[in-house]
């Protein structure tokens, strides 16, 4: 039968519709550092400093080039230590910017909740500024779609989901309708053929009767 075969492209179509409307669900979002300026160091003994970025539960990323305060360091995102981190959902991470301390515990520039929703349209840029400490610009274009997933919880998202669902349903009904119409049409043709054949046989019988009658005379 042709029906089971026609379900395969239908399923493909539905999953395609689903993943194109919720792209954040399928891809991880990579965060890179685009620029940073530190306004002071906490280290008294050394002329230069070692600054690193760390998210809880992940490995630290040492910002090798960042050595001096009051200099803007710009990055293109392809440096050996990039990306800084990544998000696989809209959930925030606890991250911070620290300075290695040769004697005591490492110093903290800042520690904060690092969230995909902080990255703003249109490019997915996020500027974290703390007075007298630092000014850093992070970039995560994919975070926009990740953060967009929680928009689906409110009215607009629901609206899109309903439209997608409705168009899928309408497509299914349309396809089933066409398949049904073709089947009905074929059945009708077959019935017509059979009727014509039967009529032919009946005609044959009539002819036979006539012939039989004719020969008896
Ligand atoms: C941290 O780095 C070590 C060695 O480089 C690696 O074995 C480990 O899996 C890393 N941990 C995470 C959470 O990435
Ligand atoms: C996401 O981050 C984890 C840990 O930092 C790393 O092991 C993994 O390879 C990263 N994935 C991507 C796609 O960058
Ligand atoms: C922080 O850095 C960004 C990018 O370099 C810049 O546009 C912004 O004006 C800076 N903000 C402050 C308060 O210095």
Automatic annotation (TrEMBL):
Cross-referenced Pfam families: DUF7953
Protein name: DUF7953 domain-containing protein
Membrane-spanning segments: 160-185
Signal peptide (UniProt feature, chain positions): 1-28
PANTHER family on file: EXPRESSED PROTEIN (PTHR33780:SF3)
Keyword entries, A-Z: Membrane, Signal, Transmembrane, Transmembrane helix
Ranges of residues in domain DUF7953: 29-141
Highest taxon in the source lineage: Eukaryota
